[in-house]
Amino acid sequence: MNPVDISIESLNLVTLAPMLIPIVGALFILIIDMIKGGLDRSLYVMLSLLFLFMDFAALLNASDIFTQSGTMMGVFDVMLIDGLAILSQFIIVGASILFIPLVLTNKRFHESSYPEFFALFLFMIGGFQFMVATDNLILIFVGLETASLALYTLIAMHNRDRSFEAAVKYFTMGALAAGFYSFGSMILYALTGSVEINQIAQVLEADNYANIGFVLIGVVFLLASFGFKLSLLPFHTWAPDIYEGSSAPMAGYMSIVPKIAAFVVSMRLFEFLIHSDIVWLEVILYIIVVVTMTMANIWALVQTDVKRMLAYSSISHAGFVMAAILIATTQANSALFLYWILFSFTNLGSFAMLWISREKNLPPGQSSDQSYEKFSGLVKTSPVAASIMALFMLSLAGLPPFALFWGKMYMISSAITGGYTVLALIMALNSAIAGYYYLKLIVYMFMKEPSVAHQANVNIGNITLSLKTIIGIAAVGTIFAFLAINPILEFVTSFVYNSGY
Amino acid sequence: MLDHILSILIFFPAVAAIFGFAIHKDSMRAYGISVAIIEFALSLWLWFSFDSAVSGMQFMENIPLISSFGINYILGVDGISLFIIILASFFTMIGIASLSDVKDVKNMIITLLFLQMTMVGVFAALDAIVFYIFWELSLVPMLYIIGAWGGPLRIYASVKFFLYTFAGSLVMLVGILFMAYFYYQATGIWSFAILEWYRLVLPESFQLWLFGAFFIGFAIKVPMFPFHTWLPYAHGQAPTIGSVILAAILLKMGTYAFIRFSLPLFPDASVFFMFPIAILAIIMIIYTAMVAYAQKDIKQVVAYSSVSHMGVIILGTFALNVEGITGSIFLMIAHGVVSGALFILVGVIYDRRKTKMMSEFGGLASVMPIYATIFGLMLMASVGMPLTINFVGEFLSLLGFYQQSQTLTILAGIAIIVGAIYMLTAYKKMFFGEVTNEKNKNLPDVNKREMVALLPLAVITIWLGIYPKPVLEPINNSVESVVQLMHDKAISEEAKKRIPNLNKGVEIIQTPAQEVN
Questions:
Q1: A140 belongs to a structural domain
Q2: Which helix (H) or strand (E) holds B60?
Q3: Closest-approach residue (CA) in chain B for A442
């Protein structure tokens, strides 16, 4: 038996750096807690921020290397640092940086007093980063499960009955999705003898999709599993309950970060199949995209709680963006990243606005935290809060020149250039339907009288400097997006194009 | 400064509105009037420095916005847009000056200034996306004006207004993106610049579809029959100032966009759809006139008559010759002045009596003589009396369409005459006869503040009715180049025949159909 001889250089360990930073950070926080317990939450928030900024710097470094020398492989070719991996990690880490200061609310909530909250949070980020930066079905699975298990716990830490319910529901659904995933990848492995997506693609191509029936079964299982993660119809049922049960920023976070990770994996998995002209996959995706955005919009119309409305709206946005996977051109994939960058600003901002009106206990006779009535006449009591909330709503509705309009426009344009004319029209008309429920909140805030039951201070009761900063960043990003679109678009397009998508 | 006069015209009210947040509410009205006067003076300066002999765009600005996708901030005016911009700044000025005592006057004035930014922006933009931005953005201030200051059904009316137009414009957005894609296929570069698009000749089948997509967006805004149902609600519920701006300026966005986009971009489709649209326009004229006759509320009468006259504008536009289009643009201005004035007049009586029902009035001519005189003048102008401003526009519009179809023109002409019936009946009910209602006995006549708004409108109505040349000439020059462009671009024999050749040279790009496919 020959000794295995591997040089450290060939492992290319630098590819691991961005993922290792949050994991080291998480362990560091746990060690601090072991040495001296009972430290204030602000310490942990700032430590997490520091590690996230280091992570971001490592990503900048990786993107420099990518622009100079192209895609990097590392650690026995398991790690794959291409443009998609870098872009999605930027979104993951960026959204996390915007999220973590939201913990510093005026009222103290249960979960933030545990240091484990922050450790789990950083573990989760590491998990998602692994998930997007690989081509290997097993590592994707490991990353996905690490992140998801951490996320279930984070939701449960918010101390409400509904939170436990939400966490258990999410866990059950997640377990089912994991089962689907492993079953789907098993079939692909059995067909091709490989767990690397690019090799699976090569083998399938080489024998000209002879076992198309098995490919169908495998892909349908994988699609179902990502359907759960992306809350696409008909796998969306968990989303509104879980958004309602978890804290507002956590719900906003869940609508952004896990989804971009799942989008990147679906891009890797499904687009080579679409490019091979597999018609049934196109048909399935087409139906899923149209049904997801339309039905979610219609359900959102009838909600009486703002958070549930935003939950359905997030489902609808996910369906809208899923169209990029169907269209599968460079423009569509760039549109996906552009959309998601802009969406993370706007959506995190609007969920943060819900967070500042969060009460510690529900007032008697009120069944939900953020009913529409709670916001009526907000412009009279706190005009700035009302204006900012209205701004986020207009942006979500896709009104120019606010952030999401540019994403929508580019996405519809990519549908047109990709030859999906009817889809482009359906996407446009769905934006019009969505206009109604975003408008409904504006109508409550600006055109109704303040209700007597809510004192003026309730709606901004949680405000602190750190929350103000994050909401300010989100608002400025939403208004002045038009100045940043050109550089973002050029950056994203070159990264997507150079990764071969 | 003249190089950037259009940017200044657009963003000066917006910046002023932001500063307005810091001003005490008691001084807000004076601030609003000052800003609006400066803006109006700037727009007059624009007219003064405008060279009316030039038919093309003037005062152009071009700043790259999203260069990798061909979106640039391009502005410019020609004779078509110049007077609508002046009209917009003029109406904002007299609107703020005549603003009666409403609650939250500060919010109202800030909203009006933002609205003015979007209005000027729509008419000055020469990039389809920039145009779309202002077009959509104009919905938000109007939504707030109707929704916050309107009547009992205000929320329903404002949401209906917003959603109707929003849905229409999204279809238009798809059309815009398609147009950019065709341009990209023909030339290899992305561009949303309208002047670049003008040079592109599209195959007729594409023109028909794109014309349809743009038509939905514009027709809802105008509003054309059968998309007009949002307008009576919006007018009925809106406060006076909201109705004035809506009728005088916002509706003109639709008719202006037809001339700016639909006609020069899709000449063959315009000819193809000429008769269907003309028939819709005539239905619109007759049907809304009949509906107006049945109204009991004077504001609804004015609202429906306003829709009815928008039909004449559409008819003139789709005459597709110089007389018709020039007439329709002139009529846009005339309609703005006259229907704006009528809505102000309705607001005057509403402020005094808090009712708009005609049955509550009667014999007002003896109680409020000045009011009755101005109302009478505006009413005559509205029905198109010669020597008033509307007559010039209506006459030219119908003259233009007469060259395309005599029967339809005669039908439209009769409809306009019939239109006089409901206006005169309404006038009779309100102003003539004995004063029967006790409450009307001691109504004060028009006061100074209202006079400030009404007198200039009355002067313009007569002045441009007698001597329209200063306005007609620049419009005519620009329209000639549009018509020539359409003639040169037209592919089908039918279109070449319908659109007159004026023998002026215009440069275009020929795109073979197979290349676009």
A1: yes
A2: strand B58-66
A3: B144
B contacts of A493 (beta carbons < 8 Å): 68
pLDDT < 70: residue spans in chain A: 1-2, 159, 359-368, 452-460
Does residue B306 lie in a domain region?
A: yes
CB atoms within 10 A of CB B515: 10
Chain B CB contacts of A331 under 8 Å are none
Which residues form the domain of A376?
A: 14-361+368-498
List the one residue out of B122, B379, B138, B142 whose CA is nearest residue B255. B122
Q: How far is A484 from chain B (nearest CA, A)?
A: 9
Q: Which of B348, B418, B415 is nearest to B378 (CA)?
A: B348
Verify whether the Cβ–Cβ distance B154 to A413 is below 8 Å: no
Q: Which domain holds residue B381?
A: 273-466
Residue B362 lies in a domain: yes
| pLDDT 10s digits, B225-253 | 888 888 888 888 888 889 999 999 999 99
- Is pLDDT at B146 greater than 80 in this prediction? yes
Tens-digit pLDDT profile for residues B8-56: 999 999 999 999 888 888 888 889 999 999 999 999 999 998 888 877 8
How many domains does the structure of chain A reveal?
1
Q: What is the pLDDT of residue A394?
A: 92
DSSP states along B182-220: HHHHHHSS---BHHHHHTBPPPHHHHHHHHHHHHHHHHH
Evaluate whether residue A9 is within a structural domain: no
> Considering only alpha carbons, which residue of chain A is nearest residue B67?
A486
Q: Is A246 left (phi over 0), alpha (psi -120 to 50) or beta?
A: beta
- Cβ density class A89-126: b for 16+ within 10 Å, e for less: bbbbbbbbbbbbbbbbbeeebebbeebbbbbbbbbbbb
Question: Measured between alpha carbons, how far is B234 from B145 in angstroms, rounded to an integer?
Answer: 10
Distance, CA of A198 to CA of A352 (rounded, Å): 40
Q: Chain B residue with minimal CA distance to A483?
A: B65
Q: Which of A400, A410, A421 sits opposite B132 (nearest CB)?
A: A400
In 3-state terms, what secondary structure has residue B388?
Answer: coil
Q: Report how many domains make up chain B.
A: 1
User: How many contacts does A have with B, using Cβ atoms within 8 A?
Assistant: 88
Write out pLDDT tens, residues B278-305. Answer: 999 988 888 888 888 888 888 898 998 8
Per CB-CB distance under 8 Å, the chain B contacts of A428 are 170-171, 173-174
Predicted ipTM? Answer: 0.89
Share of chain B above pLDDT 90, in %: 36
Share of chain B above pLDDT 70, in %: 97
For B329-347, the pLDDT digits (tens) are: 999 999 999 999 999 999 8
Contact A435 B158 (CB under 8 A): no
Separation of alpha carbons A412 and A428, rounded Å: 7
Q: Specify if B372 maps to a domain.
A: yes
Name chain B contacts of A436, Cβ cutoff 8 Å: 159, 163
Would an 8 Å CB–CB cutoff place B170 in contact with chain A?
Answer: yes
Q: Does residue A32 belong to any structural domain of this protein?
A: yes
Q: Is residue A4 part of a domain?
A: no
Q: A446 contacts in B (CB within 8 Å)? A: 144, 147-148
User: What residues of chain A have any CB closer than 8 angstroms to a CB in chain B?
Assistant: 394, 397, 399-401, 405-406, 409-410, 412-413, 416-417, 421, 424-425, 428-429, 431-432, 435-436, 439, 442-443, 446-448, 482, 485-486, 489-490, 493
Please report whether residue B482 resides in a domain.
Answer: no
Torsion of CA B100, B104, B106, B112, to 10 degrees: -70
Taking CB atoms and an 8 Å limit, are A432 and B133 in contact across chains? no
**In chain A, which residue's Cα lies nearest the Cα of B104?**
A380
Burial B154-189 (b: 16+ CB within 10 A, else e): bbebbbbbbbbbbbbbbbbbbbbbbbbbbbbebeee
